[in-house]
Input
Amino acid sequence: MYPYIPNTKEDEQRMLEVIGVNSIDDLFSDIPEDVKLKRDLNLNPSMSELEAAKYMKKLAESNTPIDDLTCFLGAGAYDHYIPSIVGHITSRSEFYTSYTPYQAEISQGTLQYIFEYQTLICNLTGMDVSNASLYDGGTAIAEAAFMASNITRRNKVVISKTVNPEYRKVLKTYAHLQQIEVVEIDDKEGVTDLDQLKNHVDNKTAAVIVQSPNFFGIIEDLETIGEIAHSQKRTMFVTSVDPISLGILKTPGSLGADIVVGEGQSMGMPLAFGGPYLGFMATKKAHMRKLPGRIVGETVDVDGNRAFVLTLQAREQHIRREKATSNICSNQGVNTLAATVYLVTLGKEGLREVATQATQKAHYAFEQITKSGKYKPLFDKPFFKEFVVTSSVDADEINKKLLEEKILGGYSLGREYPQYKNGILYAVTEKRTKEEIDTLSSVLEGII
Amino acid sequence: MKTYNKLIFELSKPGRTAYRLPENDVDQVALEELIPEEYLNKDELDLPELSEVDIIRHYTNLSNKNFGVDTGFYPLGSCTMKYNPKINENMAALDGFANIHPLQPEETVQGALRLMYEIDRALCEISGMDKMTLQPAAGAHGELTGLTLIKAYHENRGDTKRTKIIVPDSAHGTNPASAVMAGFDTVEIKSTEEGLVDLESLKAVLNDEIAGLMLTNPNTLGLFDRNIKEIADLVHEAGGLVYYDGANANAILGKARPGDMGFDVVHFNIHKTFSTPHGGGGPGSGPVGVKECLLEFLPVPTVEKDGDRYYLNYDIPKSVGKMKDFHGHFNILVRAYTYILTMGRDGLKKASEMAVLNSNYLAHRLKDHYNLQENAIFKHEFVLAGLKGDFLDVSTLDVAKRLLDYGYHPPTVYFPLIVNEALMPEPTETESKETLDEFAEALIKIAEEAKENPEILKEAPHDTPVRRVDETRAARNPILKYEG
Output
């Protein structure tokens, strides 16, 4: 009757006999009558696989996937190439039907790929220690703020408004819980206003948080911002980074970062309407015991063979309860595996090529879109794969016209940055072709 | 076959490649002309070089060192390791779900919004709540979200004295950790001998500083707390709210609803109750449902319906804000909704009935050999207090490790903390009587081995890819990345 429930009627009877009760109802007699549900749930009756699939496909087909459009939308979630191998490995059910590797002896697969993931994240960011991942880019920033506050025993964080607005909203929700003051620094011509930053960093500041490339796609002067952060003793310098950009840009570690976080979706995860993605977090060795989340370490078994195990667990909720560094219990599991496979598949040359092509194509698109003069650059700063242009026409109006031509236009800045009302943030990944970019710019030109 | 024991980095060889991109068809301007040199990394990236075959073989070999629900019985208590139906994976991979951008115009994602709206309604019906937020990424994140709402509720009333959350000593570790993360202090209350909330202890701590109580029902001993209404009433009378940790919801689908028990806020662990994969640790999903008193504080956006149109509602002036980027773990919810459709109202109820039947059956098969609370009706899980008899030498850990040799994932061990030598099996409804019988026989055999040959337990496991690992060494001298 139900494909996932193997007990037969006869099994049920024999089991009830062993237990010594007459009916299934007897097993629920401990639930008081006044809280028992005395009716059926108001849901559909059970469906066959064919019926359920038909229903779900109907819902799926009333969405327009990006493959039916040309995607120039980014703003924190990107249409990057995902090698076929990623999905094949993450579909292995020995990985995806397991749980947190509490029993190390039969979880070496999971433990080892997490160890490899930690290594890759450290190498990419130039940091010493990585955890096994957090939920996403936004909660990673919030956890970094808590971590910095915990390490410094201070309750103020300073964050640039050039950090993704989604992340800042999550940070503010979290910060309120622990009465951490969040000071936001304005942008000046598309980058963090350094003078304003200097004025707000003081001896109560737990962390200075910036993003580079920032929300406008612009590369921030991390070295100088790091110096401003470190002008106060013990203040932590937290940077959020697009991992793809690290194919060509200097590592945050080499620029003075104390905690590096970021959104990992670009590393082999489909857009999936916003999740599940992955938040990464890495830090210096001195702070490893303050990291939130799971961490895997190398050790040996009783026979002296190399083995991996969850470690530094004295930080965690299942051991420390109210004294844990965070309440986080899970990591992003399968997505951590996706990021690992993505990074080793692209490897030394591939990540650089993805980043290089994205940079070149984004700059080509920028030239094409701005050359007629109808669309003007909003900022004149070095950028990676995203850039902002503005025009005399309302951004939503432009996006509507683009959609008619099957183009998914950029992100309308006016929602979060009223001062840049008609600004549009375009994202150009390595997947876009010259033809697609030329079409975008010619359609755009026709709109004004 | 020799056990595979290589790291991916040890397979790297200069010149190998596993990817190929199309030739760049725009002007290939040198990077130095696009980005100032001082920002560019001149060093080679520290990433391996491999062929696609190398990578597939490596991770296939690693997967063979893993044990999942598809490998065998995985009765990990409080984790609800039920079977993950394969249709769910197929639906999540549909182009219309997997390949939509979270910021696409609403008119291009009506199906996704409708799915979110419908699963919101279904989860409300199952839980007896009024409205869900789908943002929380996991159970612990749901707890944090729920406590954030409780905080907002009291703050909105100007009731700033309420800084404490009551947590029973049988609670999941995430409960006190979430409470502290949400800026509360915790007050632990003792359980009765039987394992339920001690009403007198509860009354003793209730006052105008209490923001709320967190409770799992059935609790971590697998017992349904029959005093639940009185508990909720007491907390409400004292001005607090009551939080339902849904980790154990698999026991009561279609049987009882937290909303009817007096809970104000509820989270579900979608990856437990609604069959989505545990994924080696995640991604999970932890939607939170609320009663009317908390509606005005829900995170933005919620999903609403206007005629035939579905939309994201950001217009919640007293909202606590955002708990997470975008709209939560959407593609996990796709799997869960597929499950809800396939099971339906009858199948969900049947699932809970069989989860409870399996649990009580297994408990009865084991009660002569392991210490078990007498005359109790268990829900979806139960707790054994170690081996029966006097085995000073053999611990629950030894029993668990020996189970590995018999081809099982052991039950949860040493939790809940209030039971000595705790061993907590949760069989779930997706296991057959035969599987339970074989598992019980293995545990009974291990109990015999403990008497006759305790060494075989203490040295276990013997037949796993690696044997007992040195955790102390890992923690004392942390090696957290490959150094070459």
About this structure: Chain A touches chain B through 209 residues (CB under 8 Å). The mean pLDDT of chain A is 97. Residues 1-38 of chain A form one domain.
